[in-house]
Amino acid sequence: MKCPFCGSDNTRVIDSRPADDNNSIRRRRLCDECNKRFTTYEKVETIPLIIIKKDNNREQYDRTKIEGGILRSCHKRPVSVDQITRVVDEVETEIFSREEKEVPSTVIGEIVMDKLKDLDPVAYVRFASVYREFKDVNTFMNELKKMLDN
């Protein structure tokens, strides 16, 4: 960090604490050249994530939608809330690690299905039936066969 008084790059942090809003860190710094103190604020830069829906509409990312879909597919299944939260966290991490500003909902759906396949086969089939919009029993059976062959 450059000193605002003398322009030196030789500064160090002498105190750090959360700022008033709890979304940033307030740092007191000391310049090793001129011995003057100054304050900086550090804040996480967040990129607003936009989801491209199947109909090409765009909306802001909403974690509760993923949570809701997984909760519905795990209804009356031996899956704990902690497991569901962990899956949602994993999906979210995978989405945000792509560092893209826009992500198609189809990509998110595939990630969720992949995670549910490992978590609970029945929850996976439930989610897939809604997500893939099975038109008839044959499509449903084909998906089950694929899963059983693996």
How many domains, as an integer? 2
Radius of gyration: 24 Å
Low-confidence stretches: none
Distance between the termini: 54 Å
Share of helix among residues? 40-55%
Question: Helical element count?
Answer: 5
Number of strands: 6
Arithmetic mean of pLDDT: 89
Helical/strand content category: alpha+beta
Kindly estimate the percentage of residues that lie in beta strands according to DSSP. Answer: 15-25%
- Summarize the main sheet: 3 strands, antiparallel
Report strand order across the widest sheet: 1-2-3
In sequence order, what are the helices and strands, one letter per element? Answer: EEEEEHHEHHH
Question: Looking at the structure, what is the overall shape?
Answer: elongated
